[in-house]
Structure formats: structure tokens, C-alpha cells
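Is this the right way to post C-alpha cells for a design question? Let me know if I should format differently. Anyway, here goes:
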């Protein structure tokens, strides 16, 4: 007999089947009946006029630290996300020797844009092993959260400060033993990075970038000893184009691990129509070898801003970091130098970050000085035309007047009809999964967390590139199967009652805005949802009509206990 009945909603069950109207009966967090469900004194939720869908699963987040001060994983949960996967890109907070806590905090602040004050004040740092980290979160989360084991943490734990080299056979065995232990206590798999963009708090390559291919293959073999595991990997080819060696490398890692591998993120543009097929070559090769490689791709444009004061994507442009990595007065002097500015602009235009060189399309955001106030929310190109100056010179002068604190919003790229048509086709590919939000990271610079509601709004009222049931399937059942999550991702009897109820006519997201609510008062970007009526995790309300209930029904997902080998 159900203890809760959600009555008369339009059920979109996550399987890609057509929607149907019915009731959902829940008992002790499980879905026990679907169809016409009798009440018998149960709590009743009226879902007339609402869609009942599985809670969304975000496969690529960095909520590893934030969950300690925000168990609701906001703003993701506001937008219907009920399960988050952390520990991506090779970065986790465990395993951790106490001597390395400061290094880890500074690395996470640098590479994932987490405020150092938040890491220092909002995280207890009381664990050593991976299981102790998971235990520290148990009972304190409102959403379900699972974590891959980060390669950087493994190497730092074993090698300490001497990580900037390949490991010896003995050290490699120690790193492997540490991974085996971490997986045995609940890790969902292994993540690593080989990307040249990933540097630590000292500006040096992060630990995993020094690992040999032999080390990584051995670690993947250890992953293969366990059921229900996953791999996640970032290489330079994820940003540019995979080399032939990388294609083979990714495919063979999946085979060695007996697990699916996902990488982040597949950009789609009609200017490069062959890019998708090229970047999916590891998937094709993996199939030939008996493995599986999946590309993450975002179904909506991500909000992103930059400034010239703190670390941002601008620092990744070749030649820019040496100019920017000085004190503010010297940085302003360099940016105002016409010769240096010319060199920076030329480098940006000829690099893989060429889209960032369109300074005329930037929009001025937050400003500090009164003289910049008239420029708020205006395009730099317009201001440059009024001044009779070059857009890059104009943006530098605006920033200099604010001691470089001005926020700028770059214009969107690959945003035409042909680009979106191509994206719609990509979503139908079996080797592609929606995700890449980076939620929990780059908190004051990027906002990808609202992608579920924005994608549904676009599906129902915008470009209409796919159906409602397909959109829900791509954000629920597909990631649940990839990670082998038991009883998640569908509205079905025997599944856990992770559900989102929303108004199909109103679903969407508001614009990004800043909140200063992190530990230490640091800034982050958020966006409010529209049309989300209720979010349930394991059968209990965590959000009702936009208000958090204070309930903490989420579970820390552990590999083996909460995963199966269904993803293979």
C-alpha cells in the first residue's frame, strides 16, 4: 500500500515511450504502483496539469566540495536534478593526506574555479581514505551523489610533492592499490586528465599529467576488477581534435577497464561539419575492440563571463598567461601597451580560442566605477564606435577604470539555425550523452546547471528539435544506464522515487545572476527555474514551489552497492 500518491499527471517515464496520464504510488521511497492508484489514507499530491518525469541526472559536476555547505546542490536541484556525479576530470578531495590539504585546495581553486575561502571555511578536511570522504557526506545531502576517484588525488597521495614525473613500478603498484581500495569502498570508477589546460595552484601541470600510459592502463585494469564502474577522461584532443594515437588510447582504456568511458565536451558547429564524426572515432574504435566511449555534449548554450582580474578562460589563450600573471598595476600597463595588445589579439585569433577574440560582441556586465555605470549591459562594439576606438582597446580601458574588476559576457558562438540543426542530429547518436554542465565549478564564471529546464523549454516552445519524451530520456535513463545506477532514471515500478513535477507550458530558466552566498561571502552565478512545481528524492520532497523543504533524503551512491553492470 503506497504512503504517497501523485495523482493524475502526464507521465513521461524516461524510456522514450509516449507520455500517458496516470497516478504514481510511492512507498518508502520506491515506486510501487503506476496507473490508477487507490489512496487508502496515503498523502496525495495533485499533479493535474503537470508532467511527472524522472529526476534529471547530471553526469559531469564538481559538487565535491559544495555539498558540505549546500547538500541541495543548488542551483542544479532547483532545475530538477536529483542525482549528481562528481569526481570528474581527475580531481577529487580524497584520498588525501593531511599534508596535502592546502595543495588540494589551491589546485581546486585554480583548475575548477572554486573560491579558496569556500574550500577553507566550508569543507571539514577530516578524512584520509576515499571511504571516509563518502562517510562525511552520508546523511547530509538532499540529492543523490556519486563520485569517481580522481587520478590526481591518487598520485599526490602516493608521490607527495615529487609527483612531477612518471612513477616507478613500485609506486605504480601503490597507486593501483590505493585505487583498488577506493573503489572497494564506493568509488564509481576512475577519472583523469591529460589536458594541457589543467594546472595547479602553482601554475604547474596537475599530477595526473605526468602519468605514463602504462600507469593509466594498469589503473584501468584495476577498474575492470569491479562491476558497474565508469571512466572519465579529458585530453587536449577533447578541446582540439583527437589524434590517431588518442583515438586508439581512449578505446583501449575502455577495454582495459571493462567499463564505458565518457569525455567532455563535444562542441558542435556547422562551420566544422566534419568535427562530430572525427571526434566520435574513439567510439567507433572502442566498439571494434569491445569497449564503449561516449562524448558529452551540452544541449543549450552555457552562460559564461570573463574579467581581466581573476583566472578565466582568457588565461588559456597561448601567450596570454605571461601577460596576465602579474600584479594589477603591471597587468593594466601591459594591456594598455599597443604592441602587447596586438600580440595578444593575433594569438587569440589564430588559436583554438578564436571565438573569444570577437571583443565587439562582448557585453559589459558588473561594473565598479561610476564612469563605467553607463556601459552596464551594453555591447563593447557600440561603446567602441562611440569612442572611435578598437573594441579590444575599449574593453581594456573599461576594465582598467574598474581596476580590472569589470565582468564581460562574450557573445555566443555557433548559435545559428544550421548549428542547432546539427546539434539535434548529434543528440540521436548512440555515442553521445547530454551533459558537461561543470556545475559546482567555475562558480563566478560559468553557469551550466540550468541545462535541463532550458533544454525542455527549447524542446517544447523554442526550436523543437526533439520530442518531450526524447528530451527526458536523454537526461534520465541514458546517464543512469551509462553509470549502471540501480533503480534510477525511470518512472517505473521498482525504481526509486526520484521525480520532478513540472508545468510543460511554463518550464524554463531565468537569466544568470550573481549571489554572494558561498562560505566567506564569495560570488557565484545562479539562475531561477520556471515551471518546476516539485522535486522529490527517494520519495521525499526537497523542493516545493521553488522553496527548499530542508529534507535531506539523498544518498551517497557507492559503486557495487548502487551500481550494476547494465552500462556495458
Amino acid at each position: 500500500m503506497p504512503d504517497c500518491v501523485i495523482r493524475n499527471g502526464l507521465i513521461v517515464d524516461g524510456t522514450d515511450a509516449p507520455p500517458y496520464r496516470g497516478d504514481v504510488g510511492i512507498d518508502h521511497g520506491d515506486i510501487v504502483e503506476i496507473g490508477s492508484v487507490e489512496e487508502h489514507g496515503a498523502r496525495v499530491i495533485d499533479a493535474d496539469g503537470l508532467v511527472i518525469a524522472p529526476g534529471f541526472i547530471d553526469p559531469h559536476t564538481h559538487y565535491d566540495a559544495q555539498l558540505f555547505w549546500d547538500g541541495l546542490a543548488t542551483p542544479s536541484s532547483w532545475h530538477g536534478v536529483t542525482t549528481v556525479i562528481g569526481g570528474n576530470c581527475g580531481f577529487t578531495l580524497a584520498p588525501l593526506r593531511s599534508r596535502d590539504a592546502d595543495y588540494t585546495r589551491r589546485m581546486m581553486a585554480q583548475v575548477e574555479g572554486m573560491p579558496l575561502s569556500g574550500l577553507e571555511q566550508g569543507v571539514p578536511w577530516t578524512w584520509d581514505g576515499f571511504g571516509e570522504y563518502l562517510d562525511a557526506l552520508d546523511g547530509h545531502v538532499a540529492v543523490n551523489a556519486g563520485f569517481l576517484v580522481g587520478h590526481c588525488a591518487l598520485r599526490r597521495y602516493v608521490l607527495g610533492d615529487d609527483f612531477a614525473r612518471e612513477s616507478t613500478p613500485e609506486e605504480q603498484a601503490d597507486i593501483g592499490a590505493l585505487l583498488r581500495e577506493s573503489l572497494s569502498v564506493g568509488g564509481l570508477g576512475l577519472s583523469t586528465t591529460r589536458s594541457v589546460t589543467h594546472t595547479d595552484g602553482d601554475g604547474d601541470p596537475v599530477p595526473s599529467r605526468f602519468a605514463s600510459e602504462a600507469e593509466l592502463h594498469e589503473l584501468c585494469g584495476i577498474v575492470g576488477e569491479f562491476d558497474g564502474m565508469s571512466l572519465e577522461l579529458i585530453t587536449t584532443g577533447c578541446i582540439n581534435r583527437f589524434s590517431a594515437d588518442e583515438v586508439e588510447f581512449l578505446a583501449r582504456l575502455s577495454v582495459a577497464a571493462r567499463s564505458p568511458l565518457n569525455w567532455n565536451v563535444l562542441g558542435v558547429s556547422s562551420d566544422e561539419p566534419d568535427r562530430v564524426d572525427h571526434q566520435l572515432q574513439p567510439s567507433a574504435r572502442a566498439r571494434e575492440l569491445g569497449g564503449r566511449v561516449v562524448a558529452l555534449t551540452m544541449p543549450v548554450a552555457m552562460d559564461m563571463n570573463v574579467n581581466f582580474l581573476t583566472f578565466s578562460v582568457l588565461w588559456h589563450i597561448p601567450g596570454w598567461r605571461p601577460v596576465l600573471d602579474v600584479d594589477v598595476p603591471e597587468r593594466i600597463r601591459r594591456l594598455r601597451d599597443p604592441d602587447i595588445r596586438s600580440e595578444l589579439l593575433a594569438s587569440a585569433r589564430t588559436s583554438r580560442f578564436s571565438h573569444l577574440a570577437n571583443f565587439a560582441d562582448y557585453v559589459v556586465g558588473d561594473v565598479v566605477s561610476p564612469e563605467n555605470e553607463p556601459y552596464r549591459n551594453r555591447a563593447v562594439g557600440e561603446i567602441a564606435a562611440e569612442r572611435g576606438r578598437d573594441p579590444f582597446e575599449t574593453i581594456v580601458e573599461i576594465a582598467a577604470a574598474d581596476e580590472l574588476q569589470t565582468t564581460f559576457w562574450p557573445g555566443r558562438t555557433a548559435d545559428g539555425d544550421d548549428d542547432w540543426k546539427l546539434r539535434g542530429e548529434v543528440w540521436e547518436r548512440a555515442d553521445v550523452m547530454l551533459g558537461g554542465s561543470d556545475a559546482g565549478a567555475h562558480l563566478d564564471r560559468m553557469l551550466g546547471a540550468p541545462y535541463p529546464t532550458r533544454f525542455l523549454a527549447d524542446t517544447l516552445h523554442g526550436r523543437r528539435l526533439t520530442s518531450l519524451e526524447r528530451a527526458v530520456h536523454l537526461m534520465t535513463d541514458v546517464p543512469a544506464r551509462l553509470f549502471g545506477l540501480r533503480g534510477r532514471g525511470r518512472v517505473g515500478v521498482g525504481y526509486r522515487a526520484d521525480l520532478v513535477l513540472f508545468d510543460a507550458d511554463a518550464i524554463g530558466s531565468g537569466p544568470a545572476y550573481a549571489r554572494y552566498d558561498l562560505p566567506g561571502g564569495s560570488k557565484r552565478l545562479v539562475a531561477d527555474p520556471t515551471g518546476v512545481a516539485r522535486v522529490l528524492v527517494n520519495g521525499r520532497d526537497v523542493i516545493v514551489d521553488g522553496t527548499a523543504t530542508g529534507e535531506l533524503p539523498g544518498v551517497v551512491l557507492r559503486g557495487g552497492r548502487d551500481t550494476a553492470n547494465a552500462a556495458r
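Format looks fine. Someone answered above. Worth noting: Residues 306-409 form one domain. Residues 311 and 561 are 39 Å apart (CA to CA).
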